[in-house]
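A note from the maintainers: we've had questions about how concatenated examples are separated. There is no special marker in the raw files; a new sequence line simply starts the next protein. For clarity in this README we add a label.
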Amino acid sequence: MSRSGRGLFCVAAVSLIAFAIASGTQARPSSSLPPIRIAVEAPLSGSQSSNGLDMLRGVQLAVREVNAGDGVLGRRIQIIRADDKGDQANAKRVARRVIKKKAVAVIGPYNSSVGIVNLPIYLKNRIVPVHLTSSDDTRGEGVTVQPKNSQIAPVEEAYVRSTGAKKVVMLVDETPNGAFTIGMADRLQNRLVKDGVTITRISLKELTDNVEPTYYQSKVSEALASKPDLIYVSTYYPEGAKIAEALATAGSSPKCLMGLANVDPAFSATIPLAASQRCLFSGVPAAPQLPSAKSFVRRYRKAFDKEPGVWGVFTYDSAKILFRAIEKAGATKFGRVQRKISRTRGYRGQTGRTSIDPSTGYREQLPFLNILRVNDKKVFVIANQ
């Protein structure tokens, strides 16, 4: 086709879409227009894949729904899968692939250590990030609809204060992939010290799938030796599960609080129930526990014949907010979409009402953030319910 022919084709296509919008008629996404490509970056394989696949399915559900209607700007949405395995070492490679595939936006990553590396790369290459990282080191690098370190720390502090604990031992993932876990422990430690709590911190630096079980047993023994009132565990799953099992085996009595990154469906599936119930958790309950997510849960189960976890409902809302921003922008251009999504106000989604602070990219309302426990059905639920 000649250059002038292509120009006439584009004008005609745009005119048809404009006519459909003006007349109020519903036009199916046009197969003659290129799809809008969005990436889903998550740990789709590896030890955190249960959360990563839940994230992917949340976006898939949102995309199926929008493609079954008008699409976005009359165009289909196409998903690019970006598996970073939850490992910072893969961050740049995955980002380069997303850029090469010409994505206009990325939902993810999940791991803060990954996002610290590749969120600036996405922004530099004019790709809009709607991330799930919780580290405040990613402040201003896109937007998020889930909680950040600075928003989680007060909830954890309130719980520790409610126990009356005066001596706390922290077991902290301080590996290269531990940006979130280190930041979370730092924030809580600073708060507790101001409350007059004595803190002992034990570093975990050998977190691999091949580490000997005795490694965690030895770290738990070291933590218990100082006779703390409470043990705080700032790790990701599966390390937290191994620590919970070691605590249960030791028959120890101190209270235990684990950070949000251990809230993973696989946590309670891989260790005995008594061990999974040994600690409480800061975080967000699984989607079926959210009153606002009833419709999502029903549609998710029907679409995938699986039970939704924690983060799929957040990526579902992330996708819906992104599509809304593109529609409002009237284009997929980076600057326009970025401005619209960062000014999201009062969006009623499956995780509740969402408004974004444009100065930080953070969500302003967090009605779902709480202290959790594992119930007898091995499901994360709010602790006082």
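[label: protein 2]
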Amino acid sequence: MPFALDQIRKLGQRGHTVFTADTFLAAPGNHSRFVEDAFCVPSPRFEPEAFLAAIERIVREHRIDMILPTFEEAFLLARERAHFEPDQHVFAPDLDTLETLHDKARFQRLAADLGLPTPPTRVAENLDELRTATSAFEHWFARPVSSRGGLELATNHGPLAGVVAPDALDPTPTRPAIVQAYVEGTDVCSLSICRDGEVVAHAAYVHPKEIDHAGGIVFESVDAPDTLEAAQTLARRTGYHGQLSLDFLCDGDGRQVLIECNPRATAGCLVMSAAQFERAIFSPAPELEVAPAGVERKYASALLRDIVLHPKEAPEALSHLLGRAREVYFDRDDWLPGVWQFISAHKILDYRASSHSGDELRSDLMAAYFHDVLYDAEAAPDTRQRAG
């Protein structure tokens, strides 16, 4: 993940010794000058036992004292934290908290219970219920309760209307779909670093430019105190410890409507300073720090892609490319990851050449990086009884 590279750099700049692990060695973050050593490990999704054994070995042999998940491997590491010594800290909450916040239906019930503003919502466990739910709203959007990254989003309104047919979601009792009233507004996201139920670092940001209307490629921090209040409410209720990300839509009345939660790292760290990020995780008694508005970051390669593939959007993409936002991958003092982002494109080609049952519903550009590090509570084998 691009934000994993950012976190590597931030911690390295602050004097920490950083080791990395990913499912392929070409991952750009593995080639940062701030990495002491990089390891290729099995997929936590497809080979959870082998993944955990590899992480345990790395942690033991290199005397790691902090394990910092950057995607959904957090779920598996949280579930198996008993395999690590007390001084080998997994920076993530317990599994039940992760699953509650990740499941969009369970999260919506929790948010409503806490009085946080959310769209009118229905849950469908089969196609008949899905059709009934969508007919309840003039404009709606729907996705599986366990989806992420906007990759399985069906809607009848906005730029993604009709891209995914609602029946393609194929909800079941074990993987239902959530249907919500469409909220007209500006996407606002947040990342909070939480310690034992308290938010100690927070950043709210918008996406001035997105890739295929699914994920940001330009980021700008904003002043959005409602996002901090929502994060604090959730963190205190759940005792959250780790990285907590929320997605909002700011409606016409200026109200931040809470859409979903990603209980893991996201791009919000990009607009935090290295000092803020590091203090939030390692300081013995951190005080709340909020990222200032106006910090801008960009993925230059994604903007170049937009210019080539979407000529109508080229002027806007070019203005961002030439703007003042700081590039994520390329850094004058740490330039190799910028080269390896292109070499790592083989992962996309490999994904396209493979058959992934059930993975047809979203952009393979994003899915290629997600598919082997996802956590599926129903499909994941329980490894708790294996020998440690």
